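Help needed: design a sequence for this.
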């Protein structure tokens, strides 16, 4: 009997133990449950945040695409010969006159890739009596030949005489072009005659004719947000004659002669011809400039001077001339420092009025957008001339759509940097153009040690993956080869423009300057730091963001997965090259310096290649082209 209480006691203890164990198991299960719930919730919050963020990124990407497609990349106009009446003042006369077709913004002037037809780009979109119209008050003379027996050919409101035309055609030499960095004469690709700029003089002046002003307004517009003004300089390059039958120049880009070269200008002198339309393409769009006598705008009796200007990285071609002679003067167009807002109220583009500005602002104002801070990377629409020495290039040379992306980001106080992405090595074999592009890491040049170099700083592969968000895909996807002797289908031609392979065809052999695809990097600061002063450079900003404590972000602490921030901070330290690893000057995008460089180029008064003669795979040296 005595054992009974003991046994009861034991059983009670066992039961208590079992209960405790059960409670413990329950508590553990509850905790696991709670934990699961907590993580589930966290995942939901995260996926909600991701959904918001992805939507903002998508909106921003499509805004960017629309922006690129609607931007101006070419413009054109025409000039009539008008003799001044006795006593009429030339300036007063000019003040009432100027016509231009501002490229893509005029729906009538451009056709999309899908509906590309030949249109008359010179026809002013709207008749507007306030629109000034430029006229030529004097005939245009071209002089060539040895100084002792110089021949003068005159273009007037009556066109050009058959005899003059014959002399000019005879004076020309076959025009070569650049293929894979070499000078080639191949009439299947280019059939034209040329006079080099030093072999003739002309009385025609694109400044006097008002063309340079129009180009400057349309291709390098001032922005309300821009600190410095930009202008352009046009330099006579060649006189070309495209004659029937078969005068043509197939798809190519114009070889840049300086890193400040932004565009090309073609001026067509009045000589009767048919065919020979100039097609210029960009971002899936095409503009056709038809200067033939069968063009709609041609009021048969009046000979006119017609012109077109375009960013020189845009693919373009001259279709076959089927009758007569098509005579052109070509100019290289460089960006230079402007003279400033003289009246203090220059007509400037306001980036804040662009739809892209609103999309970027909506994103930046949203706490769910790249909350911890990030770098946005944007493939630019245009390609840029740069030297091997300068991987970073000057924002002042940005073209149309790209310049407004830059200004939009700047208007929101965001730090931007523009970097050239890779070097292109060209090759040409019997199969057509081929090209080697270093794509070890898309968009970033790698050095031997496997780290990427951006803006002169080295980063580990993983750093970049973790820090950069791409806003748009690179444009030059698949390359379509057009075999020699085979006609490219119109669509094939049209879309080759977005691929790098076409760069194999230049209008002269490549020099020390080459085109490169470029990226704009935009720093999005951590949410709580938005609106604060921008850092000196994107990478300075990143370094700061990553090394500072960011407990304020609470639940978002592991927003970017399980990678630990300290990893970035440490690896930044490890990978970031020391100051003396690179020459600051080479990579600086400081506006003061940029200003100086443009100034110097303007002072030099020429478009000589920067870094000419450096050892580059493409070779160098001017050997003629157009
Ligand atoms: O004559 C034209 O319209 C364009 C010529 C051209 O593309 C060139 O000379 O590079
Ligand atoms: Fe060209």
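Sure. Designed sequence:
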């Amino acid at each position: 009997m005595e054992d009974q209480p003991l046994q009861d006691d034991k059983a009670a203890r066992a039961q208590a133990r079992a209960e405790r164990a059960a409670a413990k198991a329950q508590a553990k299960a509850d905790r696991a449950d709670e934990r699961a719930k907590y993580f589930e919730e966290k995942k939901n919050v995260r996926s909600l945040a991701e959904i918001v963020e992805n939507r903002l990124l998508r909106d921003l990407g499509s805004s960017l695409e629309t922006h690129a497609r609607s931007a101006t990349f070419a413009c054109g106009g025409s000039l009539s010969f008008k003799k001044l009446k006795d006593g009429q003042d030339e300036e007063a006369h000019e003040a009432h006159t100027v016509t231009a077709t501002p490229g893509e913004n005029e729906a009538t002037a451009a056709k999309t890739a899908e509906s590309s037809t030949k249109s008359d780009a010179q026809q002013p979109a709207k008749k507007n009596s306030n629109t000034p119209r430029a006229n030529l008050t004097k005939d245009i003379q071209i002089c060539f030949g040895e100084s002792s027996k110089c021949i003068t050919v005159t273009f007037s409101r009556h066109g050009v005489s058959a005899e003059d035309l014959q002399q000019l055609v005879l004076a020309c030499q076959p025009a070569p072009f650049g293929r894979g960095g070499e000078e080639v004469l191949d009439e299947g690709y280019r059939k034209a005659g040329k006079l080099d700029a030093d072999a003739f003089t002309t009385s025609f002046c694109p400044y006097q004719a008002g063309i340079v002003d129009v180009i400057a307004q349309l291709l390098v517009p001032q922005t309300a947000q821009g600190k410095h003004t930009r202008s352009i300089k046009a330099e006579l390059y060649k006189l070309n004659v495209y004659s029937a039958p078969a005068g043509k120049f197939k798809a190519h880009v114009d070889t840049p002669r300086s890193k400040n070269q932004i565009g090309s200008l073609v001026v067509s002198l009045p000589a009767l011809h048919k065919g020979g339309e100039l097609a210029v393409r960009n971002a899936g769009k095409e503009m056709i400039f038809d200067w033939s006598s069968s063009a709609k705008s041609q009021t048969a009796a009046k000979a006119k001077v017609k012109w077109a200007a375009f960013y020189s990285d845009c693919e373009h071609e001259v279709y076959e001339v089927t009758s007569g002679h098509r005579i052109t003067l070509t100019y290289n167009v460089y960006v230079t420092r402007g003279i400033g807002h003289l009246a203090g109220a220059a007509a400037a583009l306001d980036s804040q009025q662009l739809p892209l500005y609103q999309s970027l602002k909506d994103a930046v104002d949203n706490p769910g957008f790249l909350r911890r801070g990030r770098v946005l990377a944007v493939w630019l629409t245009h390609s840029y001339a740069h030297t091997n020495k300068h991987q970073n290039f000057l924002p002042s040379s940005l073209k149309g759509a790209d310049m407004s992306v830059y200004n939009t980001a700047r208007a929101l106080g965001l730090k931007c940097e523009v970097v050239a992405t890779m070097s292109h090595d060209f090759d040409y074999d019997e199969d057509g153009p081929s090209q080697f592009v270093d794509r070890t890491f898309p968009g970033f040049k790698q050095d031997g040690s496997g780290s990427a170099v951006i803006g002169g700083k080295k980063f580990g592969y993983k750093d970049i993956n973790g820090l950069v968000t791409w806003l748009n895909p690179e444009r030059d996807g698949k390359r379509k080869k057009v075999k020699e002797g085979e006609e490219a289908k119109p669509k094939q031609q049209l879309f080759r423009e977005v691929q790098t392979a076409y760069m194999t065809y230049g209008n002269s052999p490549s020099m020390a300057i080459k085109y490169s695809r470029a990226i704009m990097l935009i720093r999005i600061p951590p949410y709580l730091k938005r609106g604060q002063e921008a850092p000196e450079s994107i990478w300075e900003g990143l370094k700061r963001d990553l090394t500072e404590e960011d407990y304020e972000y609470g639940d978002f602490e592991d927003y970017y997965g399980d990678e630990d921030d300290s990893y970035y901070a440490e690896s930044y330290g490890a990978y970031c090259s020391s100051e003396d690893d690179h020459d600051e000057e080479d990579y600086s995008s400081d506006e003061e310096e940029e200003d100086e460089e443009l100034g110097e180029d303007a002072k030099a008064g020429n478009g000589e290649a920067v870094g000419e003669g450096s050892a580059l795979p493409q070779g160098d040296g001017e050997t003629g082209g157009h």
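The first helix runs from residue 3 to 70.
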